[in-house]
Backbone:
């Protein structure tokens, strides 16, 4: 198992977002998290990524987790190359400019265009390039298809298949077309 979570709960003030949730992810598995807005899909991903502490419960992560937020965060005055160099250094990785340029080419982005001129879909593509360069075992994707055109969605699908071969993937989505591509669908309900 890549992820083993038992009795996970998260509360903000008096409001419970997650309560007594068990979740697991096996190597080679893709799992979709579905449910209405506010049910805790993003919170669960952030807890699994280690960005938010659960109020209670236990989580065991076997491997390195990477998180693609919606919307992704970048420095708007940096170029795509500069954003990736900066992000990888923050992760303790030694970035190679050639690899970064190849990753940008793969997602169809220019190397030196400032992020200020990027569309939302281009920012999502940059986030995919960043995640790929981070080489996580576990890909945690929060509505990754949002703002992507058909070419971007095809690219995302191929990256998810690649990630599945390396480790496992958890996708929070409202897009029903993803469900048929998943090994398992987890329906979250309001607490």
Residues:
């Amino acid at each position: 198992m890549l992820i083993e979570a038992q009795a996970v709960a998260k509360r903000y003030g008096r409001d419970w977002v997650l309560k007594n949730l068990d979740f697991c992810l096996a190597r080679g598995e893709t799992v979709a998290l579905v449910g209405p807005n506010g049910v805790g899909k993003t919170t669960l991903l952030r807890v699994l990524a280690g960005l938010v502490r659960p109020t209670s419960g236990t989580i065991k992560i076997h491997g390195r987790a990477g998180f693609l937020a919606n919307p992704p965060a970048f420095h708007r005055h940096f170029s795509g190359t500069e954003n990736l160099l900066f992000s990888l250094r923050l992760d303790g990785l030694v970035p190679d400019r050639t690899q970064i340029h190849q990753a940008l080419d793969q997602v169809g982005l220019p190397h030196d265009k400032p992020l200020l001129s990027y569309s939302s879909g281009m920012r999502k593509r940059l986030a995919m390039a960043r995640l790929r360069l981070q080489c996580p075992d576990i890909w945690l994707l929060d509505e990754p298809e949002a703002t992507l055109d058909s070419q971007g969605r095809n690219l995302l699908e191929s990256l998810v298949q690649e990630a599945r071969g390396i480790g496992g993937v958890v996708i929070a989505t409202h897009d029903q077309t993803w469900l048929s591509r998943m090994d398992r669908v987890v329906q979250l309900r309001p607490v």
Notes: The chain has a mean pLDDT of 93. The chain has one domain: 3-187. The beta strands are 3-12, 15-25, 30-34, 56-61, 65-68, 138-142, 168-172, 184-187. The radius of gyration is 17 Å.
